[in-house]
């Protein structure tokens, strides 16, 4: 087996592994979500097939496409319908070699505000910074959604995560093995959104006799 074939096999296995891990961590449910990776040294991408449950992905569920989204293996399953926003990221961001699209609960709740995710802690800024922009609502799989993602990346060229309003998130990494996207970016984003919900609730019930604590809570929640 050639080195190129070895890389292809390894990437398919990694995509399957991180797909399953994301599902098992509760970051997506049903047949939602998709995972992709750039094939090293090429203009080709591997992406999970349409309709597959991420918790059941195998290497055979990973499809090869080009940067325009065209399938390259005639006998392979149909690729995910979200191909348009994956390919726009790879075209605009040569530094990105892996993308994972998920629907984490608290992230989706925050995305209804159609606003950047506030990065309230030092750790959040280090892991998720400089910005986590949120794009407007658009139907899944449409070119309009891909255009929104492209616009967000032009306005925030260093973004590691983009929120999709009323939908989910795209986490992007330079690591083709998906370690950043699968193990850090998506969970960290949902944790930050969860903290925002917690702080907003705390702000409502805080003891008003402690004025200094209340001011801090208000500042964090806003």
What would your notes on this structure say?
The protein has 222 residues and is of the alpha+beta class. It has one domain (3-221): Class II aldolase/adducin N-terminal domain (L-fuculose-1-phosphate Aldolase, 3-Layer(aba) Sandwich), CATH 3.40.225. The protein has seven helices and seven strands. The chain has helices spanning 3-24, 83-92, 105-111, 122-128, 143-155, 179-205, 211-221; strands at 34-38, 44-48, 62-66, 98-102, 134-135, 161-164, 168-173. Strands 3-2-1-4-7-6-5 form a seven-stranded mixed sheet, with helices on both faces. Helix 2 (83-92) runs parallel beside helix 5, helix 3 (105-111) packs across helix 6 (179-205) and helix 6 (179-205) packs across helix 7. The model is unreliable at 205-222 (pLDDT under 50).
CATH second-level architecture:
3-Layer(aba) Sandwich
CATH superfamily annotation? Class II aldolase/adducin N-terminal domain
Shape: globular
Number of helices: 7
Largest sheet: 7 strands, mixed
The total count of strands amounts to 7
Computed structural class: alpha+beta
Topology:
Blueprint: H1 3-24, E1 34-38, E2 44-48, E3 62-66, H2 83-92, E4 98-102, H3 105-111, H4 122-128, E5 134-135, H5 143-155, E6 161-164, E7 168-173, H6 179-205, H7 211-221
Parallel strand pairs: 5-6
Antiparallel strand pairs: 1-2, 1-4, 2-3, 4-7, 6-7
